[in-house]
Structures are given as structure tokens and as C-alpha cells.
Design a protein that fits this description.
Shape: elongated
Strand order of the largest sheet: 4-5-6-9-8-7
Number of helices: 8
Structural class: alpha+beta
Strand content: 25-35%
Length: 243
């Protein structure tokens, strides 16, 4: 198919041809992230099609996360979702660096609490044992990506502070300050929706799709980290190879 013009006698509907043309321009680099698309009128004139055809193509492009709309400003190219490979242990900081983005974290909450029944079960520690609980907003190039709440046994990470977490990646702290020997990590994934609290920090509308992740990190068969994360559904895709 010629991806530079609309073919009227094609079996492919006109809106789908326009969809393919715009997707091709995104994928070949003609359009870049956050570029503004031509207006409906401009697209109608450029491809000699109706506004109804343009609007149908825009609906499909938005549904598949290729574009987003700004009220009163127009239609823009979406940022690419980050694809995370699940074949090996990974950290948010290192993975963002690999794709050329600048990772950062804002420590929103940091406190020491007593393990309740749920935390005790997840960390495999006695009830009421002291635990660090902290919540971090994870960003890439200053764009909110994920909200994480982490629980760590205080006995293993004595002396951890909010200031240290604000300056250094958590897994670097684990390795450099506490000599952690990572054995493995387990993660579970579940579809969820953004709630009111997450809406505030992740800068997406309430009830937007998201991914709920739960991570258990092990050292010598001991759980040393339990983290619950909410990742923006428009920013993450997860990849695994089954053999």
C-alpha cells in the first residue's frame, strides 16, 4: 500500500488508510513525540477526504495510544510507552537510563511503623516488628510514571533515611550501604484504575487504566522488600518470551 496518499477505490476504508499513513509517519520519525498533528481541515484538504473520515481515524489513533488531545489546542503525538522485559531482575532507574531518559524520584512519605498482619505475612516477619514504609513518585524526564509504596524490615536496613532515598537509587543503597546479595525477585501484575490519590501524583484522570505491580525481593530466602506500585497504563508495556 502507498502510505503517502489515500486511494479511493481501495478495499481498505478511507479512515483506515489515513490511520495507516499517520502511524507510518510516527514510526518512521516524520512525527515525533508531542508534535502537533495538522488540523481536521488541513487533513481534509491534504488527502481530499471528509471530516467524518478524519474524525473516525482520530478515534482509532487515540484508542491505540498513538495520539492525545488537548482541549482547545489540538491533537498531539503520544509519547511512546516504555517496554519492560521481564526476563531478568530490573530496576526502574537503570531501565530508564537504558532508553535515554533521566530517572528521578520524589519521596512523598517516609515513616517507621509496626508490621500489621498483612505486612507481617508479606515480609515473613513477626507481627508488630518495625518496618520502614515509604512512598515514592517515579519520574522519567520529569514525567510521572509510577507511584510506589515500599515496606522494608528495619532490622535489615537500620539507619535508612528519607534524605538518603532522595539522593540515591534504592537498589544502589541496598548494594553499597547494606551489602545486599540479591537472590531473586517475584512480581505479580494486575489491571487496575487510577484512584483519587494516584490521580494527584501521576497527573492522569481518575479511573484511567493502570497496572498494579507487587514485588517481593529475596536475599538468602528472606523477603527483604515488599513493594506495591501503580504504573500508568499509557506509559508501560511488559514483555516476556515464553519457550
Amino acid at each position: 500500500m502507498n502510505l503517502s496518499k489515500i486511494i479511493n477505490n481501495s478495499r481498505l476504508p478511507l479512515y483506515h488508510q489515513l490511520y495507516d499513513i499517520i502511524v507510518d509517519k510516527i514510526e518512521n520519525g516524520t512525527y515525533h513525540e508531542n508534535d502537533k498533528l495538522p488540523s481536521e481541515r488541513e487533513l481534509c484538504e491534504q488527502y481530499d477526504i471528509s471530516r467524518a473520515t478524519v474524525r473516525r481515524a482520530m478515534v482509532e489513533l487515540e484508542k491505540n495510544d498513538y495520539i492525545y488531545k488537548k482541549q482547545g489546542k489540538g491533537v498531539f503525538i503520544s509519547e511512546k510507552a516504555f517496554e519492560q522485559d521481564l526476563l531478568s531482575f530490573y530496576s526502574f532507574t537503570e531501565e530508564m537510563k537504558k532508553v535515554g531518559k533521566a530517572p528521578s524520584s520524589n519521596v512523598i512519605e517516609f515513616e517507621t511503623i509496626k508490621a500489621n498482619a498483612k505486612i507481617s505475612e508479606n515480609l515473613k516477619i513477626p507481627l508488630n516488628q518495625k518496618v520502614y514504609k515509604f512512598t515514592r513518585l517515579r519520574l522519567a524526564d520529569e514525567v510521572p510514571m509510577m507511584l510506589e509504596t515500599t515496606y522494608l524490615p528495619k532490622s535489615r536496613f537500620s539507619g535508612l533515611t528519607k534524605e538518603l532515598l532522595s539522593k540515591k537509587a534504592m537498589y544502589d543503597i541496598f548494594s553499597d550501604k547494606y551489602n545486599v546479595d540479591f537472590e531473586k525477585a517475584e512480581e505479580t501484575f494486575k489491571a487496575t484504575a487510577i484512584n483519587s490519590r494516584e490521580e494527584k501524583y501521576l497527573e492522569v484522570k481518575k479511573d484511567s487504566p493502570a497496572i498494579l505491580l507487587k514485588r517481593f525481593t529475596y536475599e538468602n530466602n528472606d523477603v527483604i522488600e515488599y513493594t506495591v506500585s501503580v504504573a500508568r497504563g499509557d506509559k508501560f508495556r511488559f514483555h516476556v518470551v515464553l519457550e
